[in-house]
Recover the amino acids of this structure.
DNA sequence: AAGGAGCGGGAGAGCGCTTTCCGGTTGTGT
DNA sequence: ACACAACCGGAAAGCGCTCTCCCGCTCCTT
């Protein structure tokens, strides 16, 4: 122990010598591959403990060609467009939480990468190919993100959060946005709202489109063929502005579905400014069940996305893909649920 | 090209053959170490381009004993205590943003690790020692986090975000919390507030203590020997409750300093509920300049922490430490600034 | 009783890279 | 001119691990 303390951490070789067996045997014990005499196993384990041996990841990766962790790529964050992306986006934290929650019990960790420019995307692909990670979890904030294709072209396993705008043979998880919108519509109608509008997200985002069409379809089924809509871009300010526009078009509005909670918070401000009571005069339903929903007064009734579970599933799919490279792309769609609070 | 396409990605050997030089020379060109004849360099670069060579990270790590990335460890997130930790904490996103911003130009990425239990902490230390990362950036949400010491004991380079509760020979970055509190006090006094109180963060957190004492000291210098305080735990609800308590003690309050924006948002709710106008009746100053500050109506006047810069500096310190192992611990303290909006 | 299947263990060949050591060439000082 | 240094490129030794062979043993089969 004293002699090898000088030469850095112990290696397999050291353990083997200590246990009086070969490197191969120690490796087998560690990796639980093939049968090894229980007695020898015991000796080896003792030797491992005695030497304080810790396997060297790089050496293992070199021969197995497995890095043993995955990349969590946030694409298109800082570029022009909606939310601030990574910073301040509570979404990101929840996704990361779900990913880490699934990975950790398996002794893996995500490598965080941002791809907010073409240059950055190139770098990300390059690093993945260097073996930094075995695959990528991709969260695109942009509709036309080229990264999914680039990853596919490089033959790198990848799973997306949200269906890609341009169809591609890639696995993904997503939410049944239309069903969520329907939940909101049903709730507003059940409350007795007659003049209902909606504040949408940026319409170049699929999720926004789905929420809008889902909402309109559901309202149509309830006998409301026309639903006024104002487009926002998922930020609080844009929600406030959109709400004002909606009120200008339909001053007698008594119910509104807002495509995310942050904009709903802005809508609440607009409603208060114009002297309307929520939920007395106007009922408001948000989307996401983010922390913003609880920060609102009145607290927001909202459509919940099970982000953490979705992130965990996304991770599961990726590990599957890494495990079985030939596997065909899969998609898993989650069902949203309505969380009723004070605003509607 | 055709023959080696079959056997996976090209290696140094392939490039060397293509360029008609030895592996060593190619390696030297790639790493820019020692002088290599410019002409040969050109040939090698061409060969690299032709073969589409990408260096294998594991092999490089194995011999250089450098992983080439760092861990971003969030410690004590899910455990009992204040904020939800990672999920939903906008802080985390901003820190991550600052870290990635500094790392990316250097071709590095952070590995995200959560340490929310003793078991998890053990795992984190283990993985770092396996060579997963060369050092750790540690964000502790808990006062008495054992991780800094464990890392130090394992001889792993580490830099903390925020001064550790128990003094330790570790580098860290922090904010001059007292100065921030003074900024708030000066502003409130300048506005003509006479009856001023404060909502503090959890007092087992150093930052909370500093903000409180800083605020009290500054108010004392302005001739206000006593400042009523109510303790919150950095959540919106706790801020609202604390504000109510403060109002009970001092109904004629005309100014309040709240130790973070989220609680300030709650305080705003309490003030509105009790029929007080902000800033007319009561001026409110928050802390952090987080996204919550902008979500408030009126928008929050707040003390800004340059989180991104702090995170970048933290990263710089860590890379320094990795570069020069013997280096002594350093600390860098950032100065806050006041962002004046509508609430005060 | 003899042949073969099955199993547990060791030897050793790499995985792809960096880096020391060496030899040959060219430049420099006296 | 000659010794010496500086410089550049190649050969080769690993870094620590996995995994394929291979060998010797036991045990079952016929």
């Amino acid at each position: 122990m004293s002699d090898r303390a000088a030469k850095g951490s112990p290696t397999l070789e050291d353990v083997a010598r200590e246990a009086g067996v070969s490197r191969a045997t120690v490796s087998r014990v560690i990796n639980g591959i093939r049968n090894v005499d229980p007695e020898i196993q015991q000796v080896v384990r003792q030797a491992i403990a005695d030497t304080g041996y810790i396997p060297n990841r790089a050496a293992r990766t070199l021969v197995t060609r497995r890095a043993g962790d995955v990349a969590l790529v946030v694409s298109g964050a800082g570029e022009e467009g909606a939310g601030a992306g990574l910073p301040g986006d509570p979404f990101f934290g929840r996704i990361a939480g779900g990913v880490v929650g699934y990975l950790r019990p398996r002794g893996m960790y995500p490598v965080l990468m941002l791809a907010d420019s073409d240059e950055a995307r190139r770098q990300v692909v390059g690093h993945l190919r260097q073996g930094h990670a075995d695959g990528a979890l991709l969260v695109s904030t942009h509709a036309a993100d080229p990264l999914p294709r680039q990853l596919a072209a490089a033959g790198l396993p990848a799973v997306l959060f949200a269906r890609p705008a341009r169809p591609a043979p890639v696995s993904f998880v997503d939410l049944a946005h239309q069903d969520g919108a329907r939940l909101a519509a049903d709730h507003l109608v059940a409350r007795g709202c007659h003049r209902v509008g909606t504040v949408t997200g940026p319409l170049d985002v699929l999720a926004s489109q789905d929420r809008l069409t889902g909402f309109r379809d559901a309202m149509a089924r309830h006998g409301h063929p026309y639903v006024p809509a104002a487009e926002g871009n998922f930020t609080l300010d844009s929600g406030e502005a959109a709400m004002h526009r909606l009120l200008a078009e339909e001053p007698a509005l008594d119910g509104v579905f807002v495509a995310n909670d942050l904009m709903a918070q802005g809508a609440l401000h607009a409603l208060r400014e114009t002297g309307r009571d929520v939920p007395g005069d106007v009922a408001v339903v948000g989307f996401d069940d983010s922390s913003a929903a609880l920060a609102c007064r009145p607290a927001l009734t909202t459509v919940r996305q099970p982000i953490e579970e979705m992130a965990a599933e996304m991770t599961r799919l990726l590990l599957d893909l890494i495990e079985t490279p030939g596997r065909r792309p899969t998609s898993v769609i989650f069902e949203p649920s309505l969380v009723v609070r004070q605003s509607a």
